[in-house]
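Before the break, one more example. Copy the sequence into your notebook; we will annotate it together after we see the structure.
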Amino acid sequence: MNERDTAIPVTRQAIVEAAGEQFGKDGYEGSSFSRIAEAMGRPKSAIGYHLFPSKLALATAVIEHQQHRWNRIDDAIPFPAGIDHLVALLLTAGLDARACPVAHGAIRLLREFAQSGAARPRGFDWGQMVLRHLRAAADAGEIDAGRVSAASASMALNATFGLVDGTRTVPDDQLETQLKALWAPLLTSFGLRDATERIAGIGPQEVPPVHDRGAEEPQQRPDPTTVRTWATANGYEVAERGRISRTVLDAYTAAN
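Here is what the structure looks like once it is written out:
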């Protein structure tokens, strides 16, 4: 592996992090390659089309990066499916979005894409995740199954991340209090008894560490033969030798 190959994932990760911060501040329409490059102190050409063919591709990379992180957060929640797991997951993700620019950017992008009807990556579907835990609580007899729907899950999710996005200047403990004050009457309306007391004892969980940009990423480069075999089987055109395109590598990584 030459020095240029080793540097590519590091550069890509740095761009995703800078883009996440930009998307979080200015949204999709207000962000551009030029602004992201300026924030990094780099020329626009340094983050251009050799890594991301479009702004949409870069926004998608920000979302997919954070979806991977959300999956790791979800795996770390110590509760079974249900209300406790859902509250811990939303609380942890909400507080994480204040500390992690990529998380904040991904949340804003997902909300904007949902409003515009744009396609969204499905590596972590918040709507389905909330719905799954509400259904688990209903199956356990904790809430009214008749109140559980995609619409109620969406309402809880939008209210949660709307509050997170709108209170970025308040301390974390105050945000936690506000989130629980939001969820208690909502869960009570679903039929959960003693909702305030139930969620009061649930706190945020430890967030898995972000990738070490200088060491971890280069070690995870997939085997070229494996990638070519996968690409051919999935309809991608890839040469038997030479450089594999970033589009194919990204697709392989997302699928595996």
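The longest helix spans residues 3-30. Confidence is low (pLDDT under 50) at residues 1-10, 212-220. Try to locate both features in your own notes.
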